[in-house]
Write a structure and sequence with these properties.
Number of helices of chain A: 4
Low-confidence stretches of chain A: none
Structural class of chain B: mainly alpha
Order of helices and strands of chain B: HHHHHH
CATH superfamily of the largest domain in chain B: NADH-ubiquinone/plastoquinone oxidoreductase chain 6, subunit NuoJ
Helix content of chain A: over 70%
Strand content of chain B: under 5%
CATH topology of the largest domain in chain B: Four Helix Bundle (Hemerythrin (Met), subunit A)
Number of strands of chain B: 0
Distance between the termini of chain B: 66 Å
Oligomer: heterodimer
Number of domains of chain B: 2
Structural class of chain A: mainly alpha
Low-confidence stretches of chain B: none
CATH topology of chain A: Helix Hairpins
Number of helices of chain B: 6
Shape of chain A: elongated
Chain lengths: 108, 176
């Protein structure tokens, strides 16, 4: 009885668990990968997970401010991707690779 | 099985599968394509949550602009083979995976433990949300106008900074 309800009635918890799974996938990507661009992609995954939880809370609270916060998160994410990719281009010009271990040579 | 339940499970599966492929594929172009797939799935999840305007913005900004930026940089680099795509060390890798799994278990446990509050599983009626785009614009330009203008300033600063950074000769190591 309980199991069929879990699968058939979609509630706030389902969206929150989906958000958690996606966030932890992005965290695994940031921790395990060594390509700087793939790490940036994983950060985008984490931000998307946070957006899902914002919108789910906003819907189930009948509050529109969750969607406004998602706008701000999206803007910050786009800016962060632009800066990160510019840094990656700079690293690539110097070392011909975007592996994260070259970022320890940043100075001057 | 009802239609919205099937839609949720389908979208959850595609979202998580895209995320797994982003993390696990060693070719960065494939990872970028999987990320675009995940973005489209997340936009569909927004549609099921009745946030239609945000879903459109998600498609335009993420699946359009940000993904084009990623793919263009990847093609600029011409990264076909990756030598060390994953971090070295099996023990530290296992510890990192364990930490992420522990965080996921902790969060899911907290969600399920605290789920008996007033935010039950019953969705509010759709009539209150039918005009959400108009309400969204109204709130954004009245109540959150300062944050909106601050974001404009931030984007200007970011644009100028990125152009200056990518125009500097030799990247971070100018003269040596």
């Amino acid at each position: 009885m309980v199991n069929t309800n879990v699968f058939l009635e979609i509630g706030l918890n389902h969206y929150l668990v989906l958000s958690t799974v996606l966030f932890c996938l992005g965290m695994i990507g940031v921790l395990l990968r060594k390509n700087a661009i793939v790490m940036l992609m994983s950060i985008e995954l984490m931000l998307n997970a946070v957006n899902i939880s914002f919108i789910a809370f906003g819907k189930y609270n009948s509050n529109i401010d969750g969607q406004i916060m998602v706008f701000f998160v999206m803007t910050i994410a786009a800016a962060e991707a632009a800066v990160g990719l510019a840094l990656a281009v700079s690293i690539f010009k110097r070392f011909k690779e975007v592996n994260i271990r070259f970022f320890e040579h940043l100075k001057g | 099985m009802t239609a919205d339940a099937f839609l949720f499970w389908f979208l959850a599966l595609s979202t998580v599968a895209g995320g797994v492929m982003v993390v696990s594929l060693t070719n960065p172009i494939y990872a970028a394509l999987s990320l675009a797939f995940t973005m489209v799935s997340v936009a569909a999840v927004f549609v099921t949550l009745e946030a239609f305007f945000v879903a459109g913005v998600q498609l335009i900004v993420y699946a359009g602009a940000v993904m084009v930026l990623f793919v263009m940089v990847l093609m600029l680099f011409d990264l076909k083979h990756e030598v060390e795509s994953f971090a070295r060390g099996k023990v530290t890798g296992a510890i990192k995976l364990l930490a992420a799994g522990l965080l996921a278990g902790l969060l899911i446990g907290a969600i399920l433990y605290s789920s008996s509050g007033e935010l039950g599983s019953s969705a509010p009626q759709a009539a209150a949300q039918i005009d959400s785009t108009k309400t969204l614009g109204y709130r954004l330009f009245t109540q959150h106008i300062f944050a909106f203008e601050a974001l404009g300033v931030l984007l200007l600063v970011i644009a100028v900074g990125v152009v200056a950074l990518s125009r500097s000769k030799g990247g971070t190591h100018g003269k040596h």
